[in-house]
# Entry
Amino acid sequence: MEAPEAPLRTVERPVPSLQDGEALLSCIYSEVCGTDVHLWHGALAGVPYPLIPGHVAVGTVEQVKGEVHSLQGRPVKEGDLVTFHDVDKTCGRCWTCLVAQQPTRCPHRKVYGITYSSEEGLLGGWAEKILLTQTVPILHLPDELDPEPFIAAGCGGPTGLHAVLRGRVSLGDKVYVQGIGPVGIAACAFAKLCGAEKVIASGSPAARLKAARDMGADETLDIRQHSVEERIQMIMDKTRGFGVDVIIEACGNPLAVKEGVSCLRDGGRYVLVGHYTDAGSVDINPHLDITKKHAEILGCWGTEPKHVWQAMDWIARTRDRLPWQKCISGFYPLEEAEQALRDVEALRVIKAVIAPSATANP
Amino acid sequence: MEAPEAPLRTVERPVPSLQDGEALLSCIYSEVCGTDVHLWHGALAGVPYPLIPGHVAVGTVEQVKGEVHSLQGRPVKEGDLVTFHDVDKTCGRCWTCLVAQQPTRCPHRKVYGITYSSEEGLLGGWAEKILLTQTVPILHLPDELDPEPFIAAGCGGPTGLHAVLRGRVSLGDKVYVQGIGPVGIAACAFAKLCGAEKVIASGSPAARLKAARDMGADETLDIRQHSVEERIQMIMDKTRGFGVDVIIEACGNPLAVKEGVSCLRDGGRYVLVGHYTDAGSVDINPHLDITKKHAEILGCWGTEPKHVWQAMDWIARTRDRLPWQKCISGFYPLEEAEQALRDVEALRVIKAVIAPSATANP
Amino acid sequence: MEAPEAPLRTVERPVPSLQDGEALLSCIYSEVCGTDVHLWHGALAGVPYPLIPGHVAVGTVEQVKGEVHSLQGRPVKEGDLVTFHDVDKTCGRCWTCLVAQQPTRCPHRKVYGITYSSEEGLLGGWAEKILLTQTVPILHLPDELDPEPFIAAGCGGPTGLHAVLRGRVSLGDKVYVQGIGPVGIAACAFAKLCGAEKVIASGSPAARLKAARDMGADETLDIRQHSVEERIQMIMDKTRGFGVDVIIEACGNPLAVKEGVSCLRDGGRYVLVGHYTDAGSVDINPHLDITKKHAEILGCWGTEPKHVWQAMDWIARTRDRLPWQKCISGFYPLEEAEQALRDVEALRVIKAVIAPSATANP
Amino acid sequence: MEAPEAPLRTVERPVPSLQDGEALLSCIYSEVCGTDVHLWHGALAGVPYPLIPGHVAVGTVEQVKGEVHSLQGRPVKEGDLVTFHDVDKTCGRCWTCLVAQQPTRCPHRKVYGITYSSEEGLLGGWAEKILLTQTVPILHLPDELDPEPFIAAGCGGPTGLHAVLRGRVSLGDKVYVQGIGPVGIAACAFAKLCGAEKVIASGSPAARLKAARDMGADETLDIRQHSVEERIQMIMDKTRGFGVDVIIEACGNPLAVKEGVSCLRDGGRYVLVGHYTDAGSVDINPHLDITKKHAEILGCWGTEPKHVWQAMDWIARTRDRLPWQKCISGFYPLEEAEQALRDVEALRVIKAVIAPSATANP
# Structure
């Protein structure tokens, strides 16, 4: 991706010679995330184009220099099936990390596929080889977990898990998930696993609504069939007029926030995890929407390594009960990455996956 | 107060004959709160005019029927100096109280001086006698506490305390208090008592700014001298560019919310306690103001009896160190209640106090 | 139950005439709890013998005087299927309730079947009729819930739920439940519903171990087959040597506490919910068992109405997935209550149920 | 310190040549901690004698190789006044750090002056020069903070702060501090700064009792004058029979734990921070001491860098109000280190400080 809106190109690069503590990954799959679409449209500030997109990937280790360990404490060896936390260089040593204790806001962190230029190396997932630096957290996939369900969850898995934990979803909660892209769908699954009594999800189109139900949503609302007012009314009807305990916004539409505050119960928790890019503003009434409701509105930014680790463990554990893998609508070879972006943008797919070694879309 | 905007009138009423478990209070002082101004202008929904304003009062017990105990567990006897939690009939038995655990949002609660009509009895503070029902929580004033510092804090004391606890102000936090009416001033005091490293307060006029400093604010910003942009810049400068840990909005102006989110640190807590009436909306950008900041925005509604109890204990304990009493700018006899409302509205006073037995403003 | 160790007798009492706000329950089932065994052996202090045992019961409303509402806000009418929170008169108005916020330790509370003498009325469950006072919290059973699965959980349901919430069991936790009486079995079920990754339970005999597995335990340890040292080793082996995240002690044996601290992970949470009576002391090493482990050891006493409400809702919701009802090993008519006590004490049954209208043990 | 109980010797070592990212500190002061006494008596397991004691120190930077930054983000330069977190190599990358989130229990960490052998380098404070590794967290002292008040708090400052935060001491709490060595005295100061209503401390001798009062304790109990039973009674009398909200055990005596559980209020929090070495066991009654009290017993192990940072900031901020420096009873040259150990053990001093450049005890 050379510049915003420019056509994507595949480029040959030399295989890097490793420094001590580095590893080279042969990429099996990397995901196409909604953020990649925003990236392509230049909607993120401070991006050092040109870059290699792809912040989540899974592959086999091709080469290791010196001693490298995964977070699980196992040595990383050639042939191992691993992934990595897309966020490199969280310092763990600054005021933000140590005192404010907001590691996802550490000013030093760098993100594979987003804040690394391709000049800096093979630091993005849409590539045959990926360089794992000395500082990037590496994770072994559990033995029983295949790459497909893992990449199906993609960054939506840890992000959805973070949102569910941030909202303190617990036994008996009624939860409303706004938006059923990969983050929303994962939030449905994790909310249910946390003991939510009822998970209601809204979005479109039909294929995503079905996927949300398959993954844990008890009920879904099609936003093309029901107006905002109808949706609010339906939520209130399903909650004896009280509103839901927890809402997870995972759609990135500012208007959803107005809808959300209208169907949150007094003292409820509202997690905004879908606004990774600036999609504009929304009118909020501090009296009615926040103070009088004694509401908690909780921004949720990024992920910590623990979210990747735990999400991965849960995907492994539920791989027989939950159809994670069905969220993949298509595998694309590197040459078709631009088509993958277009398909994601048009909501033609739930999850598009780049398979660098593939030669055609199955 | 017969109707919104109507002139206030003093009316003779018969002394009620008590039911078992009731008490009659001879009112020494009742406060004039900003809410009373809103009440007079008809800005609160569902108010059963005519009513006797005054939700906080202190007095001596004149008569008791049967056994009555204060929250402290002491029998309430004639001559005792007591106050009461203005919120009557919080049921403690409904879904909101028991499961959602949001007692300040219990649908059954009634508020002295606000949601009781004068047809229902002497259930407001601006009166010579006040009826204490079987269900209203009564509190004895600590022996060492005079009525003046207690009424000086008024409902701002427990409300400010609730906001500080809601914001989890703790050792070392930098706190910004927006608005320095009685709630904001109390928030300055309590934030400091909780170990805040630095409390910055903004508002006007000069007398209130001085009061805020006397009560605990380390620094104050005069909103008539500094624009919103300047204030944000000043806050950022005082926090090495990070923003403050906790903000307490206590001014009721929707624009303050926009200012607040701009100077909150990543992962900070923002308590909205000033929006007791609907003062309109404000444009919020979910990406910049909430998600990207990993912010917590916390509505704060009403008080629980514990807040009255604890605030009262703290006023007693700090009565020699903090000039609570100086916040009272004037005592008004019942006949001058309307003038008191006008003085509060014009910010001519910090706290106006109704003294039913007074005959002239000292 | 006339006195400790005395034979149980059935006694005829007049049907009470109701006061306003009271109701009379025709008892369908009341449970036999381990506490009842302790009660019979005089192991609880301050019990006002003679009394009618039975702190949990379910029945149909036979008579209502005046207006009575359940916690759900529905009017209580003749023929309704209801239960009640066994704890009456939690005041909600004292320092313990309001400031310390420990309602289960309110000094004013009275417990049906335990701290009410039979002189005070029909205030225990092992009776044909039960008086519901003006102050006891009443709950309607959900429409889809039969009395059998409800009484099968008995007081173990809300108690086990309280312990799981107290231990903050959450997504991915490994949980060890010590003791598989009704509290332990319910804790297995609720821990799993909260997203525990793995629940290990220990106890005996085989029937209880099987019940624990049927209700949610992933693995069980038979304490008659494995020594304490073996159990500790097995737990450590199952947790890569780290120990479990949460332990719930539900067996009442002081030695279990020593076992527990030995297999808790650093920073783990250990809930002691099984020690409702004084079973003696145990040697704890503050350095090794608490400080060095950075452990949390959490006492868990009694239940709040919310625990009954939520446990009941979850029993209703999982009635098709979890065999709550199979925990009932036998129904006993009133005349056989002493036999029920003996069967519970000898662990011959998991849960014994008193069925006042039954005439023989099915 | 060559071996347990062996006489201390001063040894000449070559000045190390620095690796990239290392710094050399010229030590001004290092503290003598109770742990050093235990170390000398061989009471800690797994200590790699011989070693250079001293886990907290302050000095000026003598030499820097490459780029080194303090936690505050400032470059570390020659002549800077700095300290360091005594805990090196907390990995931030293992299950304990990332998932269990218990960084003070990270299995990879190494402690200056305790778990580093003197064979490994100048990694202890009782030395003229100290090597700061690439991984040890370095902190600049605030400009207004002199080395004396900083070293006066020593490791007691961050440890006491950790205990106060672990006990969630907050506005209005009554707090009992058991033990008034440096940790207990710091806990008195920080509890008061957090808004504790009343801090009671127990211990001996008189000089320490006076220091505790000077630093924040409202009342002190001399353990040589009052028996355990008397102390419990006195605490109960001071809390209307309820017991205290929070207890901080900072004395290392197992019997103190029994005393503590006897005067903790129902639902109170009890932090065990004094048991850094194994001083044996104590009989605890799970029913009376934990379950029935609904108590929280919280182990508290080690410190995180944030505790050092925040404690240091608070010492700087309160340096004019609190006599931190008076806790230093004596400065000892290196040659008198053994005498310092003996004075600490005999409670002849509150805090002994090693001053490597000193030539005689002032």
